[in-house]
Predict the 3D structure of the following.
Amino acid sequence: MAGVKADHNAYPIIVKNVIEKNLHQGILITEKSSAHVELNDINDNIKSNIAFGGKKSVNTMIIKNTIRNGRCEGIFIIDGGKSYINRNKIF
C-alpha cells in the first residue's frame, strides 16, 4: 500500500517522481534496505511520506525533495544511523 517500497536488500534510486495519495507511506524503505531519494514531490500520504530505519539504512540519502501535507510524519526514522538528509522542503 506504499507508493514505493524497497525490500530485501534493495538500493533503489528514486529521482524526479510525484508520489501522492497512498493509503500507507509514500516511500517505505524496509529494515535491510536503503535508498537514494532525490528531487521528488511527495505529498498527501496517509502515513509517513517517507519511512525508513534499521540495518543498512545508514546508506539512505534523502536530498532536495518537496514533502507536503502528510497526515502523519514528513520523514519517519527509527534506528537510522548516519543517514544523510539534506536540503528538503517539508511543509
Residues 4-70 form one domain. The mean pLDDT is 93. The chain has one domain: 4-70. The two ends are 23 Å apart (CA to CA).
